[in-house]
Design a protein that fits this description.
Elements: E1 8-12, H1 15-18, E2 47-51, E3 57-61, E4 72-73, H2 89-103, E5 107-111, H3 114-117, H4 128-143, E6 147-153, H5 159-165, H6 172-187, E7 194-198, H7 207-210, H8 219-243, E8 248-254, E9 258-260, H9 265-287, H10 292-300, H11 311-317, E10 322-326, E11 331-333, E12 341-343, E13 348-350, E14 356-357, E15 363-364, H12 366-380, E16 384-388, H13 406-424, E17 430-433, E18 456-458, E19 470-472, H14 474-484
Parallel strand pairs: 1-5, 1-17, 5-6, 6-7, 7-8, 8-10, 9-11, 10-16, 16-17
Antiparallel strand pairs: 2-3, 2-4, 12-13, 14-15, 18-19
InterPro entries: GH, GH_1_N_CS, Glyco_hydro_1
Pfam families: Glyco_hydro_1
Protein name: 6-phospho-beta-glucosidase
């Protein structure tokens, strides 16, 4: 059987990691624009510069710090911020899209930078230069027959909405977001069919994504902000279908598998509770209501969600058309607090002795992808789309300019084999496969460049040095055959 005709082979990126063009064309400041680089292997975190009330400067961890009174995030002229240039799609989009077409892409996933359309986030009228920029990109893609898949918010929030409104904790942010959504839906309704609401929504729990202070010490604020995200996502589906009934609007989640450490019932229960950190979001956005266990959890924690009249009806009416998800690695659930841990995607994971790991400790598990595909299909029976998958690794450029990355080819080959089993043997409805960072981009978790994912090399280092020239890796030619043979030639 194989993959269906029209299967979307392609690749995925995000504006804050790829686009660059910092403040160009009237773009405003986003939270990502005030976050530094880091070093994932040496545990040097990405940080945010704050101006304190007394005029002094303080750097804080980006993950949810309690922001001191009077502190304002700002750009320190002596600090490197990866998002400002990233790998400069802003000035290279024609070259890059031509390379994607050469590989045989049927689709390309990118995100729109909210602050390029509404620089502060709360304006009534959009920035025309920003709108035209994406018009030009979509026209270039469609010229080559590449279907756009657009993430509306990918780890992004206008800085102004964080500093002036406390981000997604404030109900007003839903209205600002919907004004943004209405604008891009109407502008691009004849160019973009496939949309995703919030990238990896289960990771939207820190200052970077929610724009709320006290993100670690105030679970009630996080819960309220997440409710606002879910309502906004449902409103997006409803409004999108009104603007263009042909729109396919999906959710996006990081959905890795979790295994119990052994057959100890306590470890199996631990697995269930950890998996709920993912299924909560997929349940709400596909079934249209809060699961009972979540409401009990909030009640036991003393958290009272403030819901407006009609919120529950909105969640019910605004369920998604398909499920987009990222898959990189798997983890192990155990009640053993002393279990050895390793890195994973924006979180840590218990080590699995049956698996190998990449240079950053992420455990490689192709069979886990088949398990996840079956679990999501059996639970929801909605079309699935793998919108991120890939191997972060250190690539070496040879003297002749060639880049040999057999490790990346093997990683993807093994995952595609398991995808094919899920389609042929299990009956899963799979729409497409979009490897992450099809071109080298800045790492979201660490702000590094040496952790590379792409089929296309970009000359840029961790400190922002490099001429940004593009070069084809060996994996470029391998993936070209995969795309052109609809996954038959691996």
């Amino acid at each position: 059987m194989g993959f269906k005709e029209g299967f979307f082979w392609g690749g995925a990126t995000a504006a804050n990691q790829y686009e660059g063009g910092y403040l160009s064309g009237g773009k405003g400041l986003a939270i990502q624009d005030v976050i530094t680089g880091g070093d994932g292997r040496n545990n040097i975190p990405r940080r945010m510069a704050l101006k304190l009330a007394d005029g002094s400067t303080k750097f804080i961890d980006r993950r949810g710090t309690e922001v001191p009174d009077g502190a304002v995030p700002y750009v320190d002229e002596n600090t490197y911020y990866p998002s400002h240039v990233a790998t400069d799609f802003y000035h290279h989009y024609k070259e890059d899209i031509a390379l994607f077409a050469e590989m045989g892409f049927k689709s390309f996933r990118l995100s729109i930078n909210w602050t390029r359309i509404f620089p502060n986030g709360d304006e009534k009228e959009p920035n025309e230069k920003g709108l035209q920029f994406y018009d030009d990109i979509f026209d270039e893609m469609l010229k080559y027959g590449i279907e756009p898949q657009v993430t509306i918010v990918h780890f992004d929030l206008p800085l102004h909405l964080a500093t002036e409104y406390d981000g997604w904790y404030n109900r007003k942010t839903i209205d600002f977001y919907m004004n943004y959504v209405e604008t891009i839906f109407n502008r691009y309704k004849n160019k973009v069919k496939y949309w995703l609401t919030f990238n990896e929504i289960n990771f939207c729990k820190d200052y970077t994504n929610l724009g709320i202070t006290e993100a670690l010490s105030r679970p009630d604020k996080v819960a309220q902000a997440v409710h606002h995200l879910l309502v906004a996502a449902a409103k997006t589906v409803i409004r999108g279908h009104e603007i263009n009934p042909d729109f396919m609007i999906g959710m996006m989640i990081n959905y890795s598998e979790i295994y119990p450490e052994d057959c100890n019932p306590e470890n199996m229960w631990k697995r269930i509770t950890e998996k709920r950190l993912r299924t909560f979001y997929t349940d709400v956005q596909n079934k249209g209501f809060y699961p009972e266990w979540k409401l009990i959890e909030y009640k036991n924690a003393g958290i009272e969600l403030k819901m407006e009249e009609g919120d529950l009806e909105t969640l019910k009416a605004g369920t998604v058309d398909y499920i987009g998800f990222s898959y990189y690695s798997t983890s192990v659930a155990t009640v053993n607090v002393d279990a050895k841990r390793t890195a994973s995607n924006l979180e840590s994971a218990v080590k699995n002795p049956y698996l190998k790991a990449n240079d950053w400790g992420w455990q490689i598990d192709p069979v886990g992808l088949r398990i996840v595909l079956n679990e999501l299909w059996d639970r929801y029976h909605k079309p699935l789309w793998i919108v991120e998958n890939g191997l972060g690794a250190i690539d070496n450029v040879e003297e002749d300019g060639s880049i040999h990355d057999p490790y990346r080819i093997d990683y993807m080959k093994q995952h595609i084999i398991e995808m094919k089993k899920a389609v042929d043997e299990d009956g899963v409805d799979l729409m497409g496969y979009m490897p992450w960072g099809c071109i080298d981009v800045v790492s979201a978790g660490t702000g590094e460049m040496r952790k590379r994912y792409g089929f296309i090399y970009v000359d840029m280092d961790d400190d922002g040095n490099g001429d940004l020239h593009r070069a084809r890796k060996d994996s470029f030619y391998w993936y070209q055959k995969v795309c052109q043979s609809n996954g038959e030639e691996l």
